[in-house]
Amino acid sequence: MLSFPTERHVLDNGLTVVLAPDPAVPVVAVNLWYGVGSRNERPGRTGFAHLFEHMMFQGSKHVPKNRHFELVERAGGSLNATTWFDRTNYFQTLPSHHLELALWLESDRMGFFVEALTRETLENQQGVVLNERKERYENQPYGDWDERMLRLVWPPEHAYHHTVIGEKADISAATLEDVEGFFRTFYVPNNAVLTLAGDLDPARALAAVERWFGPIPAGAPVPPIPGVVDPGPVVGGAPRETVEADVPLPRVYLGARIPPATDPEFYAADLATSILGDGRASRLYRRLVRERRVARDAVSFAFPLVHGRTMMLSWITGFPGADPAVLEAALLAEVEGLADVTEAEVARARALAETRLLSQVAQLATRADLLSMNQLLFGDAARLNSEVERMRAVTADDVRRFAAAFLRPDNRALLTYLPGEAA
Q1: Which pLDDT value is given to residue 1?
Q2: Which residues contact 63 (CB under 8 A, 6 or more apart)?
Q3: Is residue 116 part of a domain?
Q4: What does each C-alpha distance from 216 to 11, 105, 148, 334 come to in angstroms?
Q5: Cβ–Cβ under 8 Å, residues 28 and 158
Q6: What is the per-residue pLDDT for 60?
Q7: pLDDT at residue 124 in the model
Q8: Which CATH number do you get for residue 278?
């Protein structure tokens, strides 16, 4: 279905380079994935991957603080970065004749970040991250749901037990030596994938990559992810937590362990969550919001994580004064109802997933990001071209088998929020 031409090259220092030429528009997307996320952090040192997302824009040896943004935007481009459990990515899209500008900027911070590192810069970004944590987790209704749910679904010895943003004490305690050590361990060519997509000549682009990144020495082998790899296929029992908080309405979350995104069964899991919560024709919205009117909204999705297992999440929000037991029972009934899913429902979910993917790859920046993802997490950027076929292969029997195997009573973590006055 998809047919994006790709080339894969590996430099002598271990940097993997993916080239995806497309002359349709005169722009190029430069996308760099590092194989480091919150899963690589050790107890007492959480939040480092996300802190680094901020730190990497604070200057390098030849690029002053904030100059990266200024240069790319002055060239007519856009840029940003994100951190996740399994990776950190840095990306920019700009006119193709400015390709080498982006390569110079990315190579300078890969090769010469430590030379510009100062205590003032670190303390400044620690403050920024702590404020972000306060705004998103502590001062936001339901904002700490993922922190609480991760602790219910994963044991302390698993890498997904803590949030991407990390613990306040760990962020505050980070030293210059900690930051330099983290950088030298993970921000190395042999732990990165660089994807260039768009208006480029592959031979010239590869020569430019060699010129800017080739002299950067390889790092030591990246250490293994700490803790256990696979905590088991199910949560074990039904751990639960009830929270009285400053929230406007009662809400019930359901989490379950499911196969990782690298497992073929993940596609059945992903479509199962679509059947439950994707759009107004989904089961949760149609039955609980429109027909029974026990919920104000409903959500369901699968985290695309790869380390041992991943997590499926669903939630419904009730009306003022709603009985949380009624909300929980209604949510569980719909989840258990996947045992009788129909081919028509699966066909709808497949169509939605395919439409969403085609919309994503039509955007050059997102296409480059997906190529980097497939290369870093699956070892094959060109795997993107067969993604539609994997979606289309999922049947109603596959979804029913997934539901029977993983949406069981012994694989349910339940988190309930109650408005303080109602509780």
Answers
A1: 73
A2: 71, 105, 108, 109, 116
A3: yes
A4: 10, 13, 41, 54
A5: no
A6: 95
A7: 95
A8: 3.30.830.10
* Residue 250 domain flag: yes
Let me know whether 181 and 310 are in one domain.
no
Which contacts qualify for 220-225: CB closer than 8 Å, 24 or more apart? 220/185, 220/188, 221/190, 222/35, 222/36, 222/40, 222/185, 222/186, 222/188, 222/190, 222/191, 223/40, 223/185, 225/39, 225/40, 225/159, 225/307
1 domain-assigned: no
* Backbone phi and psi for residue 95, each to the nearest 5 degrees, phi listed first: -55, 140
Q: How do 310-317 and 251-258 pair as beta strands? A: antiparallel
Residue 298 and residue 291 in contact, taking contact as beta carbons nearer than 8 Å: no
Task: Kindly report the backbone phi and psi dihedral angles of residue 301, in degrees, each rounded to the nearest multiple of 5, phi listed first.
Answer: -160, 165
Q: Give the gyration radius of the chain's Cα atoms.
A: 23
pLDDT at residue 421, as a whole number: 61
Residue 354 identity: E
pLDDT for res 19: 98
| Largest CA-CA distance found in the chain, in angstroms, rounded | 66
Contact (CB, 8 A) for 352 and 319:
no
pLDDT at position 422 is 46
Domain span at residue 368 reads 240-419
Both 258 and 202 in one domain: the answer is no
Q: What is the mean pLDDT of each run of 10 residues along the chain (423 residues)?
A: 94 98 96 98 94 93 94 97 98 98 98 94 96 94 97 97 96 94 97 98 98 98 96 93 97 98 97 96 96 97 97 98 97 96 97 97 98 98 97 98 97 96 50
* Coil, helix or strand at residue 5: coil
Q: How many domains does the chain have?
A: 2
pLDDT attached to residue 237? 82
Same domain, 111 and 178: yes
